[in-house]
Amino acid sequence: MFGLSKKDGTLFLVVIGMTLFAPILLNPFPEGSELAQFNAGYPDLMQRFVIFGIFAIGFNILFGLTGYLSFGHAAFLGVGSYAGVWMLKLLTMNVVPAIMVSVVVAGLFSALVGYISLRRSGIYFSILTLAFAQMSFALAYSVLTPITNGETGLQLALDDPRILGVSQVNGSIPPTNFFGFEMRDGFTLDIASWSFTFNVGYYLCAAIMLIAFYLSIRIFRSPFGIMLQAVKTNQQRLRFTGVNTRPYTLAAFIISGMYAGLAGGLMVAMDPLAGAERMQWTASGEVVLMTILGGAGTLIGPVLGAGVIKYFENIFSKINDNVLYNWFSFMPDALQDAFVFMIHPFIGKGWHLTLGIMFMLVIICLPGGVVEGGQRIAKLFRRKKSGPADSGAASLPNSTPAE
Amino acid sequence: MGNLVVQGVNKAFAGLKALNNVNLNVQSGTVHAIIGPNGAGKSTLLNCFVGKLEPDTGTVMFEDQSLLNRQPHEINQLGVSRVFQTPEIFPDLGLLENVMIPAFAHRDGSFRLNWLPRIDNEAEIRERAEHMLEDVGLADNKADHAGALSRGDKRRLELAMCLVQEPRLLLLDEPTAGMSRADTNNTIDLLKRIGERGITKIVIEHDMHVVFSLAQKVSVMAQGTVIAEGSPEEIRGNPKVQEAYLGGAHL
Amino acid sequence: MDAIVLQVLNGLDKGSAYALIALGLTLIFGTLGVVNFAHGALFMLGAFCAVTLNTVLNISFSTIDPVKKDFLGNPLKVETPYIESWFGPELGAAIIDWSVPISILFAIPVMILIGLCMERGLIKHFYKRPHADQILVTFGLAIVLQEIVKYFYGANPIPTPAPAALSSSVDMGVFLGFDAGSIIYPYWRLIYFCFAAVIVGGVFAFLRYTTFGMVVRAGMADRETVGLLGIHIDRRFTIVFAIAACVAGLAGVMYTPINSPNYHMGMDFLVLSFVVVVVGGMGSLPGAVAAGFLLGVLESFASMGQVVDLLPGINQIIIYLVAIVILLTRPRGLMGRKGVMEE
Fold this sequence. Notes:
The complex is a heterotrimer. Chain A is 63% helix and 5% strand. Chain A is mainly α. In chain A, the strands form three sheets. In chain A, strands 1-6 form a two-stranded antiparallel ribbon. By secondary structure, chain B is an alpha/beta fold. In chain B, 36% of the residues lie in helices and 24% in strands. In chain B, the strands form two sheets. Chain B has a six-stranded mixed sheet, with helices on both faces. In chain B, helix 3 packs across helix 4, helix 3 runs parallel beside helix 5 (151-163) and helix 4 (123-135) packs across helix 5. In chain B, 44% of the residues are buried. In chain C, helix 2 (39-57) runs parallel beside helix 6, helix 2 (39-57) crosses helix 11 (233-255) and helix 2 (39-57) packs across helix 12 (265-280). Chain C is mostly helical. Chain C has a single domain (2-61, 102-329), classed as Orthogonal Bundle (ABC transporter involved in vitamin B12 uptake, BtuC), CATH 1.10.3470. Chain C is globular, with a radius of gyration of 22 Å. In chain C, the strands form two sheets. In chain C, strands 1-2 form a two-stranded antiparallel ribbon. In chain C, strands 3-4 form a two-stranded antiparallel sheet. Chains in contact: A-B, A-C. Chain A binds chain C through residues 67, 69, 116, 119-124, 126-128, 130-132, 134-135, 138-139, 141-144, 235-236, 281-282, 285, 288-289, 292, 345, 350, 352-353, 355-357, 359-360, 363-364, 367, and chain C through 35, 122, 125, 129, 131-133, 135-137, 139-144, 147-148, 151, 267, 271, 274-275, 278, 282, 312-313, 316-317, 319-321, 323-324, 327-328, 331-333, 341-343.
């Protein structure tokens, strides 16, 4: 199946199914109901799921396979974003050149950073990548303002040349499109009280994410991938085995940098603006969190991690005290107040507190991330049934994935 | 093929002479043992062959090519493999993968962006690796993680990893250290069997039983220099060796 | 020449903060083998100790002044801090004025307690885990700590002034033989530098001249052997962690008059302190201190007008640039030891 082993093929099929039907799967609650706020099936959020999924898949190729912990990957995403916006400004509002140039530019930049940083390993490597990313961030804010437009961020303008397209349509900036299909287009399907939105932008991102995911499976299962895993487990031995580890790690670094650039390109394809804050080290930290939370070194883990973090970020920051009062409205007033008071610090602007706690809990209790959790649950079930020992589910978690 | 000529190698660490004008001539296809008391410089000498250390002066020629100023992987690609004193394997990977990695390195060279084929489809490499695991007697637990093996098994695995590369020179650093007598005998048998393939071998060993049952030639090192060289019988009777090695006691 | 001296002086206060945080980081790393990403948060907590004490001392009750009227003609409400009514207006006002230095006394037990809780409650379970896990769990802790502080103190910086007597500047030009007025330097920065020097000296003396310090240094050099000698190394590690937390906290306390503390100051300093530690060499205490001052001063030089005109943006990237150059030319930083944190 697709040139994958049976197990990987099944996993890939499941992922295809979930991404295709995500607008339905993620909207399980009827419109207007109490629980509708837990729906995630709207285009903006779904796009973020798959875009950050791509980012995390790429990061996992470096961190999950070789064990090199980069703290500067957001820089590649940021560089990709800037390159993408420039293509939209100079060439055309068709997103294809923008995305392609994003990947190429991020790849070149990561080749430079990787070539230098990979001379060191361990924490020294992490600090080098961090230093590069912070430098890019600082420069994007100051000296490079002509290219990055500084604090305001790089945006489209009415008088952009767009030599292959048009500068403006009826006095406004034309929307981004994929050979005529506008990213913001879509149609809404109403069934009873449910409402599902199918958005062009989401499906473009999803298709690209599936390709990216497929490539990562192929890399994981290839001789190249096994060499990368050998770097992680015993780099010294690998050198004495006749393998030059530097080009292997550099290749992994560039590939993951290109994935980050792809994510950046897709971001501007969906929403054509780019700001320097995308390159800050906290943004790099976020992708590390996603990968670890999902399960570093597993195939599906990073995608799950990205989904979980983006979903909770969205939901938790949306809930406010009024919503809480609604939930607890069945309680006596005093109890209601007490509950709202207790939960209040964790929601809305306090979402980061929840994230921090969640993160600590995962590292402490579940170092393998969501995937390991799923495997443990699966094992539990299997023992209960004491049925056929099926190892096929090993990398396919039994939990309900967010994406 | 597989001969190693070492001439006038010196190596000092912060003024301390670890190697002092070492000369060694390992003939092709032979098993050459290096013995000597602890701190004699045996492992240091081996490190100079594989690119871990660079001698201060002297030459190390393998099949008319210098092994100096080369990266470890380049030396390996020339046909020199090494078994370490403490087993160096890939503990997180399966046994089969442990052996397939060196096989890939042997086939593909020091770098190849070989990401298109699936590792399951590399039938030839897989067969060789499986065959090699059988040879060292590890075929039965090939699905295990290598880190879970006993120390003796790890050493056998490492041997398989080296042999699958079909090296022309194999360096063995105390291949039986810490093994039981039975395990040691198994290892000797294994080494004898692979001896039939005509690989040149340099063995560092403390166990005289191993040395005398394997080696055709023995060099004795003490205080960073070779003090005697000859066949096992000659070495056994050499008073100078007994002096240096056992403080006068008989071997 | 005076311009150069001025830049060196300007760099010293930031350098002092870097040095103190980096000192604690290295101490923890060297002994416990743990990469503590929550160390910046400890610095921030120290600063908020000062903020808390300042707030507490300023708790007031209102009385109505029968004589004065406010501009609406109503009787004027006067806020009097309790502390003034207890100790008399003059002594009370003085205590409030000196709240930052007094906070040191308050911060020491608090920070030691926090350090102990952190080490016993979290860090000790991570001794044997990979460095990546340590980085990530302490990173999570740092987020939690800073969000808690944000919840209680808000997101805006809280001004916490130095005592009035020390808030003016000193004309260093006169002292150093330059023109009067050429080098104006705030007293508090001078005090901060001296304070940092005393703390660094204290920690070094402690490690050098006490039995405890000897064991700790031995532990830094070879942990396993010291453990084998039958020395209960774990308890000592707890104390080391508490000391490191305390040093970071005090650095934070004294830093409040220089920059009003906000909840994310810890993260801002953490990244740079890590760069400092790595530049100094993981596990080297003198390296950390030296690199801290070096980078602080370099940063201050890079922000000079002439330099920025010549190389725009250099002031923002100088530390990272220097870090990259040093790491590439000296693999283990300025004074790092072999085999630490590699592979």
